[in-house]
Design brief:
single chain; alpha/beta
Length: about 290
């Protein structure tokens, strides 16, 4: 768990704590040993096991230990840059991850027999590669694809894929300027004058293949209309759709733009941190029977 602290005042251990996370003993010890070097609003990062403050190289990665409650999954270590995204509520993150993984595994078991199809786990936004690395040893998927408009997530994804998913042909990560680029996944031609990366063409080819079945995890602060359109236009290829949302109002407004079947059948689980009152919802639907 990578947590960000903002040091305000030594006397009271006063911190600006995201999600009101309590100060761990290792942080208190670190302050007592180093507070004379701190100035107001010094940023301190910790994953409980290690600490790195903002005088260090921002490209430094520190280990995040993922200890799953699910016995079928290995406990693994993911390396994250300090500026990268993480499901960073210490009270909810493992519950959210376990819920997502259980949905994926259960829905795969319900999948009709499609022996000729390739199974793809597609992640959009957030920490998609964490789920892919966790599930890799179960040999459920033939291919792992990730899409993000965040360069830090993209770099962390490639770093961890190379460590855990040994066969480079089994994964592809795409860094796109904007989720608007997803509108080209289903088009026949690219407008080259818009200067899009050539990888968009490769992404089109992979996701427009008729012989694929896709499980999708979306983790965006706000749902993007082009992501929604992409889902709607590929609904016959999708087995499971999972949307992790921390902004329920945005989700409630944009769910109306999804296919009618999705609107009427998507189910959700809500996770509430009682200390911070933060609510994160995991919305899930199985679509392999939709035509």
């Amino acid at each position: 768990m990578l947590i960000k602290y903002k040091f305000i005042d030594y006397k009271n251990y006063n911190f600006d704590l995201k999600n009101n996370i309590h100060i761990h003993d290792i942080i208190k010890q670190y302050i007592e040993e180093n507070y004379k070097t701190f100035i107001t609003e010094t940023i301190i990062y910790t994953n409980i096991y290690e600490i790195i403050d903002n005088i260090n190289n921002p490209l430094t990665r520190i280990p995040i230990y993922l200890n799953s409650d699910l016995l079928i999954l290995p406990n693994i270590c993911i390396y994250k840059g300090i500026n990268s995204f993480e499901q960073n509520n210490i009270n909810l993150s493992s519950k959210i991850r376990n819920n997502v993984i259980i949905n994926l595994i259960n829905n795969i078991s319900l999948l009709k027999k499609h022996t000729h199809n390739k199974r793809i786990l597609l992640g959009i936004g957030g920490e998609y590669y964490v789920y892919q690395c966790l599930l890799y040893n179960l040999n459920i998927y033939d291919k792992y694809i990730g899409i993000t408009n965040n360069i830090d997530i993209y770099n962390d994804c490639n770093f961890n894929f190379q460590r855990i998913i040994k066969n480079k042909h089994n994964y592809t990560s795409y860094y796109i300027k904007s989720y608007n680029d997803l509108s080209f996944v289903n088009s026949d031609t690219l407008n080259q004058t818009d200067n899009f990366d050539t990888q968009i063409e490769d992404m089109k080819t992979q996701l427009n293949d008729e012989n694929i079945i896709i499980d999708i995890i979306i983790n965006l602060a706000k749902l993007n209309i082009n992501v929604i359109n992409f889902i709607n236009s590929n609904i016959t290829k999708i087995n499971t759709l999972i949307i992790i949302s921390c902004k329920q109002k945005d989700f409630n407004n944009k769910i109306k733009k999804f296919n009618t079947y999705i609107q009427n059948n998507i189910k959700y689980s809500s996770f509430i941190d009682e200390s911070s009152k933060q609510i994160v919802s995991v919305h899930s639907i199985i679509l392999n029977n939709v035509e």
